Amino acid sequence: MKSLNEKKQIQLAEEEVKKYASIVESDPNRLRYHLMPPVGLMNDPNGLIYWKGTYHVFYQWMPFQTTHGAKFWGHYTSRDFVHWERQAPALAPSEWFDRNGCYSGSAVDNDGVLTLFYTGNVKDDDGTRHTYQCMAVSSDGVRFEKKGVVVHLPDGYTAHFRDPKVWKHENKWYMVIGAQSEQLDGKAVLFRSDDLMHWEHIGAIAGGEDGNFGYMWECPDVFRLSGKDVLIVCPQGLQPEGMHYQNVYQAGYFVGQLNYETGQYVHGTFTELDRGFEFYAPQTMVDEHGRRVMIAWMGVPDQDEDQHPTIAYRWVHALTLPRELVLIGDKLYQRPIEQLQLLRSDEVHHPNVFLQKEVRQFDGVKGKTVELLLKQIDGKGVFSIHIQNNVSFSYDFEQKVATLERESFARNGMKEKRQCLLSQLHTIHMFIDTSSIEIFLNDGEEVFTARFFTKEENEHISFQTNAEASFHLSKWKLC
Ligand code: FRU
């Protein structure tokens, strides 16, 4: 049973949804096939799980304003991973241990009980922060009951200790938590349990030392893929380095071997997951076929968040498409899940395209909700794709650089870009959804994710080269 206070919070949130529904839905920038908040602010995906035949995506939600605050867990479910139904909020801030927010966390199936772990965020009047790792359970997957605190802050860390990700390994439960040490280094901290209630602190499995890799690590996730242990994490406090670390905070991963007994994690270097503007707080889950799938927040904390034009329509942010993760060597490849094909219609093919010093548009290749696939790409000079006169993707065959450029929505239409090195380009798989773009290069070797906002509605897509480019082009309308 929920406390009266939590019920009241949820009721207020639902009233807010009703009150602003028509304004939110009238926004021309509203996405068509991505998860968004019904009103207010959405950030991290939480509690991703395939449970009893249904996909659950929870998310950090502030229903009452388009800025951060005391977060709820919003909730969507789906049978096929592409068509979603909104459910009542699963968690609302209400108790002494979570009164200033039910912060990020994860979900597991415990003998048929859907069990959530989240961070209870508490701030005293004088600003002192407290953090508690909490549990909530549900037997129907829709109504959740809080069970209270299961992990208290261990010695050696500040109250920036949050985002529990729980999983099972060889009959024991493990929890990894994002942390800040008292020396102000970001860390990922491991716990072990037999019963999900009592947790033994094993220690930090990875982290910076002496300020060399950020002051805080958020949203860690540990999983095994192709015989290796991957740690995804979001370090805060890295400085830009060439084409790397261009966003305010980063999201990336390490690959290595984790000793579950000792907590020793031998791993390689940090690799960014996405090279675009808006990507943060990814979380993974195992789908019905045993595939590892990741969803992230299509936003970055503190990065032009108050400048999104959607705020005028009382909502802000969205989640990325679900992406299957595949490990090739020590590199994570991301591939849009194949169920997205269910959204396809109006298929168009232009095989054997050859462009020479020209700009070209193709019959049937335009729209606001579009999937584009370019295969067997070859060329010289610079090849680019221009979308809605606002955002472009280009590849320089000589410099071996991929670039995403857009008109900034925060700096008066100024051009801004993100780049990465790519030794060759053979495939571009692009998902445009009104005001979002996700570009998968070479079957997911690199990905660019971004939001963009045009002043006038348009459906423009054109292809350009200053030398030559050849490819096979396919296009689908989505949803
Ligand atoms: C990441 C994050 C998490 C925290 C949540 C609060 O974006 O800061 O560390 O749990 O957002 O909404």
From TrEMBL:
Entry-linked SMART domains: Glyco_32
All copies of domain Glycosyl hydrolase family 32 C-terminal, residue ranges: 343-470
Keyword annotations: Carbohydrate metabolism, Cytoplasm, Glycosidase, Hydrolase
Keyword Transcription belongs to the record: no
SUPFAM superfamilies: Arabinanase/levansucrase/invertase, Concanavalin A-like lectins/glucanases
Pathways per UniProt: Glycan biosynthesis; sucrose metabolism
Assigned EC number: 3.2.1.26
Gene Ontology terms for molecular function: beta-fructofuranosidase activity
Main location: cytoplasm
CDD domains the record matches: GH32_ScrB-like
Catalytic activity: Hydrolysis of terminal non-reducing beta-D-fructofuranoside residues in beta-D-fructofuranosides
Role, per record: Enables the bacterium to metabolize sucrose as a sole carbon source.
Recorded family membership: Belongs to the glycosyl hydrolase 32 family.
Name recorded for this polypeptide: Sucrose-6-phosphate hydrolase
Organism: Anoxybacillus ayderensis
Lineage, uppermost ranks: Bacteria, Bacillati, Bacillota, Bacilli, Bacillales
